[in-house]
Predict the 3D structure of the following.
Amino acid sequence: MLARLADILLFQAGFNTAVVTAGTTLLGIAAGIVGIFVVLRRRALVADAVSHGTLPGVALAFLGAVALGMEGRSLPVLLTGAAVTGVLAVLTVQWIRDNTRLPEDAAIGTVLSVFFGVGVVLLSHIQTLPGGGQAGLETFLLGAAATMNRAEAVTIAVAAIVALAAVALLHKEFAVLAFDHDWAAARGWHTRLLDLALMALLVLVVIIGLKAVGLVLVIALVIVPPATARLWCGRIGPMTLLAGAFGGIAGWAGTAASALFADLPAGAVIVLVAAGMFGASLLVAPERGAFATLLRTARQRRALAARAMHEAG
Amino acid sequence: MPTVAAFITVDLPALVLAICACLACGLTGNFLVLRRQALVGDAMSHVVLPGIVVAWLVAGTIDSLAMMAGGLLAALLATGLIAAVRHLARLEAGAAMGVVFTAMFAIGVVLIERSAARDVHLDTTHALMGALELALWLGPTGWGDALAAKNLAALPREVVTLAAVALTTAALVALFFKELRLTTFDTGLATALGYRPRLVGGAVMAWTAIVAVAAFDAVGSILPIAMFICPAATARMLTDRLGRQIWASAAIAVLAAAGGYFAAAFAPLWTGGTASLNAAGMIAVVAGAMQVAAMLFAPRHGALARALARRRPVAAG
Amino acid sequence: MTPPPVTIVDSERPAPWAIAPDVPLALRGLTVAYRATPALWNVDWDAPAGAMSAIVGPNGAGKSTLLKSVLGLVPTLAGEVRVFGAPLAKARGDVAYVPQRNAVDWDFPASALDVVAMGLYGRIGWCRPVRRRHREAARARLAEVGMADLADRQIGELSGGQQQRVFIARALAQQARLVMLDEPFAGVDAATEHALVTVLRGLAATGVAVVAVHHDLATLADTFDHALLLNVRRIAAGPVSEVLTEEALQRAYGGRLAPTQLRALARAV
């Protein structure tokens, strides 16, 4: 088993497995790098609304394709549907926040659960159609990296590269947007446009993560690697690269592990690899880790208290 | 329409489950929404999963109390972890919750898939969408004997648990209305008057976890989020008084549960379909539709009323 | 700055001021830190009864922190807070507080009367409901600040000055002997500020100690009797005219206000 794991990790376990592993690795890198700006812009849970918002799109795309006599299970068709309702979810969150008295958190919760509810109803309708039971749309809930075919993996890899290229072009602007939105707006930058671009990239990484990680957990790829990178350094440049690295490792090692245990949903395994790296970093990171912080704060507070007592007499 | 016996056996328990789940979530949700903790409902619904699975593995039976204890412990662990992540990684609350609840949900999923749990009772689809339709009341054959002791004893376990949780929620809100209002509105005054806002806040959190565990069986882990948020948010659009908001949210919750269940169970049959749709999902859809209507058309705070008020600044001033 | 002489009996200094039950608020060596950054350093101060006292100082001087530590909202690192001679836990009923305007959720589903009634919660106690007589008492307090007609308005629909009056009525309902306000005049116009000062002066005239965090040095002397000038440490305290010296202001605001401004302020007093 270990030999097989090594084979997969080293891309030696057959061409198909190698392509799938490469695809999810690229996905992890792209999600981590887009995620750093999403997290710094405080949009982490908007990503949750996007990912749950894709479910009705997947179901509607399937129904539409079948109605037009096309192959309903085609990944590009399903992901197009996912993108449409994912974008709709972001816009709905923004509309509720801007036009009602309800705060953003209530807007996010409403959108993610109601969109998911619509998706669940549509899935239960698809189940009753002839052949609908074999549609396999449930794999979009928790991901099935191991069952991806080569074309699907290539689609994901290409989309991930597009996302990376977009960030490479716009990273300076995104950094300013995330760090100081008002300053950017005052300088006359088109912050609304930049925000939309960032949300578009977020939707892109979420929908390409659907097949491998599943919509329930894909936001972990957008949040956890950036959070891990934040523990290790304070400057945005290295932080971005680290987030990409952590995301890539999670995609790569998680896919390999889920290929070994066919009954494990890939999404959960990939997320656990990412969470494991986060947990370890949380404890041992040199500046911000738990041990370092506890020791430092206790020392400083003791010194302060002693000084205060001394000065007071 | 189904026969009376079929209705009592199949639809009645599911309907009662749906109403109780929505009522418990909807009442609790008022305080989550007002405390800007709507997403805590989201997080709690996810993090109780590993607790439930571990409780199932340890206790070996589907015991409501064991599952609640497991869910509560998981919620407690999650609360501590979220605080630690916020403090150490200096992440905003949303991102910190996202890190913790995805990780714990992933652990729950792996535990289900790697243990015998999925063969017997739990599976991941159930965990996500719930299985409202699985509760059957075997015994009564008509309205006449429904209240016979023998048949009451045969009530599905989940129905009894959720009814108890819903009634307790209502009782707690009534008993602690004043405390909840004060600690939600003004932590400073609550502390000064000795009302222990952190204790009350912790209790709200813990009760959210208990409600999430109780509702999990019927509606899974994602749809309770709709029941936590939508009724309270809808009521929020309609009134400016807390008491009325709570009554309204209860009414909306019951309406969404009943409307959603009937739409899922019977509407497809009337329109020529062959099988019913997922009821938990349909309840979320109905709750969402009511909220959309309230956000657009609420008399004073709806988007339409606001747009009209902006058009007539003189009348508004 | 010379701190007031404090008689130290031993290093734990218990006795001398456990016996000052007529001092509404006494701080001794109060030190508060957020993580490892001190926000208040070794502050000694007595707030006088029956007078209006201001806590002034530049941004980040620890003014709001001082208020919060008196309310028990932040833990103290060293030193003590005494309210009418008693530790905070025993004197909670004596302290009322009016939060900073932007710390309040004005959209909260509560009417003016609901908010004033909250001042009575301390006497109602856990689990007991708010009854008609409590509501009548709250209505009477609202009438005292001239707000009887607006009792059933949602708080967000009131003007800034009306909102402040609601919170002052809540402090009245608490029957507290020490009322703390966080920037009560921020964001209200001059006429409203004047009306609020009249209400607060009336309160002080009944013997209540009114302590407010205040931002505007220019209006300090007109509104307040006493002041505590703060910049993490205590810079000066006492009657306003004695506190606002050029030298003390220089020490508190040095580098933040131009010397000419400081001189003009000191002269104005």
Observations:
- Chain C touches chain A at residues 6, 8, 11, 13, 28-29, 31, 33, 35-36, 38, 41-42, 77-79, 107 (CB under 8 Å).
- The longest strand of chain C covers residues 37-47.
